[in-house]
Design goal:
This protein has helices at about 20, 355-365; strands at about 5-10, 25-30, 30-35, 45-50, 80-85, 90-95, 95-100, 105-110, 120-125, 130-135, 140-150, 160-165, 170-190, 195, 200-210, 215-220, 225-230, 230-235, 245-250, 255, 265-270, 275-280, 280-290, 295-300, 305, 310-315, 315-325, 330-335, 340-350. By secondary structure, the chain is mainly beta. It is a single-pass membrane protein. It comes from Champsocephalus gunnari.
Length: about 375
């Protein structure tokens, strides 16, 4: 450790005594004092004198020049000031395993040499702080900062850090990792982002807890229990499956996940309400499909495919509308498809008035 030594010769008393009288007086002070560069040191000094009935009320330390016999110096008493380059070790204490919501105290202490500008403590956590100074021996002091706070689950496995800043700007820090017992938090249902209708899907309940969760329960959105266990397997998923959630439990308490609605994919189903109506010479056909993902809709004649004139999407329901003059066609097919499958439905076409008159005329001529 690199150091520099300054030597100070402490001066005697500014008292009018003869050398003979002064020789019965003694002075006591440390032989060395350590301090940080930029900080300060206090040199303790005590005197003993032969007549305790006469109390001296003032002492003065001076640099003496031996030119006056009424002043006496103790040249044998010297103090060396050592400037240290390495910071003192910080004493740190805290109960490393605590329970959420209960108060815990952390103490940070350090020795120093400058009571007029003691070290400043900074904590990583907020709370109630109390600083206690204490005088030691040989010009040394100690300062202890005690922080009282209530840890939460967010503090689990996180460091509690104490930073000490000395006069002159030098600083030193130390920390301890805190273990916080808490009920499960961040409870989640882990599952595939998509599942096809009719397939099996495995659900898993996860959480952050200390100690770890030891039991799990599964419930539907009405609160009815479905299963006990870390994993829950649905063998045949239906699009009509309701939301569910899981509860994780440990020795401290329990935590519940948000309700989860599975994203069930299924092939199109064309509603029976799909139909065609006549609007003068035009035909209006409406095809309604329910699917996930939404369907693409087409109207198919024997000789061609007609795109929808208008398409509306309402969640899983797709409505395709066709306005067209279809001539003598008597039927067309509505076709719906998505990435899961397809469906089709034949729609009967109404007979328009012109074609009906033509049929009547042809029938009359034939009867003649």
């Amino acid at each position: 450790m690199a150091s520099f030594t300054w030597t100070l010769f402490f001066v005697g008393l500014c008292l009018k005594v003869t050398q003979t009288e002064a020789s019965s007086w003694t002075i006591k002070m440390p032989s060395s004092i350590k301090g940080l560069p930029g900080s300060c040191v206090v040199i303790p000094c005590s005197f003993s004198y032969p007549d305790p009935g006469k109390k001296v009320t003032e002492f003065n330390g001076i640099w003496i020049e031996m030119t006056d016999y009424e002043k006496f110096s103790y040249k044998g008493n010297a103090v060396s000031i050592t400037m240290i380059s390495e910071l003192n070790t910080i004493g740190f204490s805290i109960k490393e395993e605590v329970t959420e919501g209960q108060s815990v105290s952390a103490s940070c202490s350090v020795a120093h040499s400058c009571p007029t500008s003691p070290p400043v403590f900074t904590w990583s956590h907020s709370g109630e702080e109390h600083v206690q100074p204490q005088q030691l021996k040989d010009g040394q002091w100690s300062a202890t900062s005690t922080l009282t706070f209530q840890p939460t689950s967010a503090d689990h496995n996180k460091p509690v850090q104490c930073t000490v800043t000395y006069k002159g700007g030098q600083h030193h820090k130390t920390s301890r990792t805190l273990k916080v017992k808490h009920a499960p938090v961040n409870v989640k249902v882990e599952h595939k982002s998509e599942v096809k209708e009719g397939e099996a899907v495995q659900l898993r309940c996860s959480s952050d807890a200390y100690p770890p969760a030891t039991s799990y329960q599964w419930h539907n959105e009405t609160g009815s229990q479905l299963h006990r266990g870390h994993d829950y397997t649905l063998l045949k998923v239906s699009r009509h499956a309701g939301a569910l959630y899981c509860t994780a439990i440990n020795t401290i308490g329990s935590g519940k996940s948000n309700a989860v609605q599975l994203n069930v994919l299924y092939a199109p189903e064309i509603a029976e309400a799909s139909s065609c109506t006549s609007e003068g010479d035009m035909v209006k056909c409406v095809c309604i499909s329910d699917s996930k993902p939404p369907s693409m809709l087409y109207f198919v004649l024997p000789d061609r495919v007609l795109p929808s004139t208008k398409v509306e999407k309402h969640g899983s329901v797709t409505i395709g509308t066709l306005h067209a003059e279809l001539g003598s066609s008597v039927a067309l097919c509505c076709l719906a498809n998505n990435t899961i499958g397809n469906a089709n439905l034949t729609l009967s076409l109404p007979v328009n008035s012109k074609m009906l008159n033509l049929y009547i005329i042809i029938a009359s001529v034939a009867e003649s």
